[in-house]
Design goal:
- The protein has two helices and seven strands.
- By secondary structure, it is α+β, with helices and mostly antiparallel strands.
- Strands 2-5-4-7-6 form a five-stranded antiparallel sheet, with no helix packed on it.
- α1 runs antiparallel to α2.
- It is extended.
- The two termini are 18 Å apart.
Length: 155
């Protein structure tokens, strides 16, 4: 088999492995019960949940479905807890900014929302997409490099 054909089949195999889905997968954990859920985040064996298959919350049942992932950092009386899971109500800051809320004496929370699979494991909403240009560039370089190795034999 020619090197061009090998590289083409390899690229085709890689493209076939890309999962196209409408389901939203999010990390689901609470640092109160699992310290790996805190920061720095250790997602290697943390539970993942398909938000599209989650039972709707009773008070949001008829209005909203889970459409985003959320990371909440709660600081209450000096104790920090991080909760990751599905979110229901998007706003104009989803995928862009985290929201900080302060309450009464020594109570604060930071909410980050994002709409990509497993994005609530990152510190910033767009961190997981930083590798996309590298992967695409490598694929293009592979294809361009294979053009120079094609040899035609005439009979």
């Amino acid at each position: 088999m020619s090197p061009f054909m090998e590289k083409t089949l390899l690229l085709f195999g890689f493209i076939c492995c890309i999962q196209v889905t409408t389901a939203l997968m999010c990390y689901d954990c609470n640092s109160e019960f699992d310290p790996r859920c805190g920061d720095p985040f250790q997602p290697y064996s943390i539970g993942q949940v398909n938000c599209s298959k989650q039972e709707p919350l009773e008070h949001l049942k008829d209005k909203y479905k889970p459409t985003l992932c959320r990371k909440t950092v709660q600081k209450i009386y000096g104790k920090t807890r991080i909760v990751r899971g599905c979110g229901y109500i998007p706003d104009e800051r989803t995928d862009l900014l985290c929201i900080r809320r302060s309450g009464t004496h020594d109570v604060a929370a930071i909410y980050c929302s994002c709409t990509k699979d497993l994005c609530n494991g990152a510190n910033s909403p767009s961190a997981q997409w930083m590798m996309l240009p590298v992967v695409l560039s490598a694929g293009v370089a592979l294809m361009l490099n294979s053009r120079h190795t094609i040899r035609f034999q005439s009979s």
